């Protein structure tokens, strides 16, 4: 990487850090260059939902040990890009400082309402994967890794 270019630091935020932001973080780790720093967090951290782990396991990615995290303001302030994955975080999130790219993906929470199905989580997973690939392409940060994601 060119030393004049700031290291890419991506922060994915959603309500509980139990599904969407976890998936996005893992896709960046799986598909992005090794020098990218990526994290995820939630406004009101919960626990990783079993359907989230199941949907990722279907792609050969084990996230069963992942923990939900609360927003880390130090990382927030040092991010290159902050991606808000839902309207809730858009409304309640701290103000993103000037100079940090602020994106809003508004991906429907597949776990909302308590009647979650694996199909809803798969749909969100696949939408997030597409958006992560586009994000990494935008920053010229896709890796040539042997891991293939369906």
UniProtKB/TrEMBL annotation:
Entry annotated with the keyword Coiled coil: yes
GO biological process assignments: response to arsenic-containing substance
Residue ranges of coiled coil: 118-145
Record-annotated membrane-spanning stretches: none
Phosphotyrosine protein phosphatase I domain: residues covered: 8-138
Name assigned to this protein: Arsenate reductase
Keywords per UniProt: Arsenical resistance, Coiled coil
Entry-linked InterPro entries: Ptyr_pPase, Ptyr_pPase_sf
